[in-house]
Write a structure and sequence with these properties.
Layout (H helix, E strand, L loop, with lengths): L3 E3 L12 H12 L3 H9 L6 H25 L6 H9 L1 H30 L9 H20 L2 H24 L20 H12 L8 H4 L7 H30 L2 H4 L7 H9 L5 H34 L9 E3 L5 H21 L3 H36 L5 H20 L9 H4 L1 H20 L14
Antiparallel strand pairs: 1-2
Pfam family, one: AA_permease_2
Protein name: APA family basic amino acid/polyamine antiporter
Membrane topology: Multi-pass membrane protein
Length: about 475
C-alpha cells in the first residue's frame, strides 16, 4: 500500500473539482447501471412502475433542493453525515455515517451486479456464477485503482464517462418514443397486489436509481467554491438525470412486452429495447451494452470516491478509527478506498453465490435504499430544526419553500424504508432479507461506536441562514 500520512497534510490540492466535474459527479453517481436494469427488476410489477418512477423523481428533486439548501449553509465534507451530526450530536452523527457508508459499499455491490448483466452480453453468456464473480471483481477494482491514483484522475474519468453514459439514455428518450406500442402497457399491473402496493414496491426499487443526489455535498472538501458549485451541481445533475430516466423508462416498457422484460436472458433491458427499436438484429443492443459498461465504470468511480469520503470526514471528527483519516502520497484516503471495495466485493460474491437473476440485484438495491433513507431522513429533520429556529429568531426568505421541501423529503425517506420488502421473493426470509441484511450491517457498528465515543470532537456550530 502507498505510504500514508495524516489528513492534515494534503499533497494534492483538496478542492480539485469545478462545476463541470461536480455536476459530472452527480450525474455519474445517479446514472450508474440502476436505471439500465430497472425494467428487468420491475417486470414482475409491470408498467405501473412508470407511476412509481414519477413519484420517486418528485422525491429525488425534493432531496436535491434540500441538499442544495443545506450545502449553502453548511458546506461540510460528509454531506448527510455532517448535517445529522451538527443537528443532533455525535451519536446520531455516527449512526448516519455508518448507515451511509453501508449504502455506498453495498450500493457498489448492486451496481457491479447489474453491470455484469451487460458485460455478459459479450462474455460468459451462460452466466456461470464463478465467472460472473470474476467479471464483477474486475469492474470494482479498476475504478478503485483510478481513485487510488488521485482526485484529479477521478474527476477526469467521471466527466468523460458521464458524457458517454448519457448518450443511450438520450437516444432512448427521443428516438425510442417513436417505437412505442400502446399494447405493451397492458396488463398495467402484473404483481398480484393492489395498485397502491405495487407502486410502493416499485418506488423502493426506483430509489436506487437516484442514490447520488447528495454526492457533491458528501465530497464538499473536493469541490472548488462549494457554497456556489454544490447547489448548482446538485440541481443540474438531478434534473438532467430525471428527464432521461422518465422518458427512457416509458420507451422501454412501451417497446418490449413485460413478459419479455421478465426473462433472465433479457437482463440487459435497454439492449433488448434497442434491438427491438431498430427492427431486429443485435448491433443496436451491443452498442447500448458498451455504453452501459462505460456508465457502470463511471458510477463505480464516483461511488468509490463517496465510499472513502464519508469515513474520512467521520475520522477527522473522531467518530471513525484514525486509519480512515489518513491520506496516501496521492492525497487520497487509501485505506477507506480499499476497505470499502473489499466490503463491496464480499457483498457481491455472497449475493452471486446465494441466488441469481433479479433477486440478487433487488435485494442489494432494497438494502441500500433502507440505509440511504436513514441519513436522508435525518438531513430533512436537521433542515426543519434549523429553519424553524431561523423563523423564531428573524424573518428569513424562502422559509415556506425550504420547510415544504424538507417535509416532502422526510415523507419520501420514510416511505422508501416502509416499502423495502423484497415482494418478488417467495420465502419469508427472502422477502425481509433487505431489512435483515441492513440490520446486521448496522449492528456491526455498535462496537465501533463504543470504542470511538470518548474520542469524538464536539460538532461545529451551525452557521446562520444566508
Amino acid at each position: 500500500m502507498a505510504e500514508v500520512r495524516e489528513a492534515s497534510s494534503k499533497p494534492e490540492a483538496a478542492a480539485s473539482l469545478g462545476l463541470p466535474q461536480a455536476t459530472a459527479l452527480i450525474l455519474g453517481s445517479i446514472i450508474g447501471v440502476g436505471i439500465f436494469n430497472l425494467p428487468y427488476s420491475l417486470a414482475s410489477i409491470g408498467p405501473i412502475s412508470i407511476v412509481a418512477m414519477v413519484l420517486t423523481t418528485l422525491g429525488a428533486v425534493a432531496l436535491a433542493l434540500m441538499f442544495a439548501s443545506l450545502s449553502r449553509r453548511l458546506p461540510a465534507d460528509g454531506g448527510p453525515y455532517a448535517y445529522a451530526r451538527a443537528g443532533f450530536g455525535n451519536g446520531t452523527g455516527f449512526m448516519n455515517a455508518w448507515s451511509y457508508w453501508i449504502t455506498a459499499w453495498a450500493g457498489n455491490a448492486a451496481i457491479v451486479t447489474g453491470w455484469v448483466f451487460y458485460v455478459e452480453k459479450f462474455v460468459n453468456t451462460g452466466h456461470a456464477a464463478g465467472w460472473s464473480i470474476v467479471i464483477a471483481l474486475v469492474g470494482l477494482w479498476i475504478p478503485a485503482a483510478v481513485n487510488l491514483s488521485g482526485v484529479k484522475n477521478t474527476g477526469v474519468v467521471q466527466l468523460w464517462t458521464s458524457i458517454i453514459k448519457y448518450v443511450p439514455l438520450a437516444l432512448m428518450s427521443t428516438v425510442g418514443l417513436f417505437a412505442i406500442s400502446s399494447g405493451n402497457f397492458s396488463p398495467w399491473n402484473v404483481s398480484g397486489e393492489s395498485d397502491l402496493s405495487a407502486i410502493g414496491s416499485a418506488m423502493a426499487i426506483c430509489l436506487f436509481s437516484y442514490l447520488g443526489v447528495e454526492a457533491a455535498a458528501v465530497a464538499a472538501a473536493k469541490v472548488r467554491d462549494p457554497e456556489r458549485n454544490i447547489p448548482k451541481a446538485t440541481l443540474l445533475g438531478t434534473l438532467g438525470s430525471s428527464v432521461v430516466y422518465l422518458l427512457s423508462m416509458i420507451a422501454v416498457f412501451g417497446t418490449v412486452p413485460t413478459t419479455e422484460l421478465a426473462k433472465d436472458e433479457n437482463k440487459a433491458s435497454y439492449s433488448v429495447a434497442a434491438d427491438a427499436m431498430v427492427g431486429g438484429g443485435t448491433w443496436a443492443g451491443s452498442l447500448v451494452a458498451i455504453a452501459v459498461i462505460v456508465s457502470g465504470i463511471g458510477a463505480l468511480n464516483g461511488w468509490i470516491m463517496i465510499c472513502a469520503e464519508m469515513p474520512l470526514a467521520a475520522a477527522k471528527d473522531g467518530l471513525f478509527p484514525e486509519v480512515f483519516g489518513r491520506l496516501s502520497n496521492r492525497g487520497v484516503p487509501a485505506v477507506s478506498i480499499i476497505a470499502s471495495t473489499v466490503l463491496g466485493s464480499v457483498a457481491m460474491a455472497v449475493s452471486f453465490m446465494g441466488t441469481s437473476g433479479a433477486t440478487v440485484f433487488n435485494t442489494l438495491v432494497l438494502m441500500t435504499g433502507i440505509t440511504a433513507a436513514i441519513p436522508y431522513a435525518f438531513s430533512a429533520l436537521a433542515q426543519l430544526k434549523w429553519r424553524l429556529r431561523d423563523r423564531r429568531e428573524l424573518h428569513t426568505p424562502r422559509f415556506a419553500r425550504d420547510a415544504t421541501v424538507a417535509v416532502l423529503a422526510l415523507v419520501f425517506s420514510v416511505l422508501f424504508i416502509v416499502c423495502s420488502r423484497n415482494t418478488g421473493a417467495d420465502k419469508w426470509y427472502e422477502v425481509w432479507s433487505p431489512f435483515l441484511m441492513a440490520g446486521a450491517a448496522m449492528l456491526i457498528g455498535i462496537p465501533v461506536y463504543l470504542r470511538m465515543r470518548t474520542r469524538m470532537t464536539e460538532p461545529p456550530p451551525v452557521p446562520p441562514y444566508h
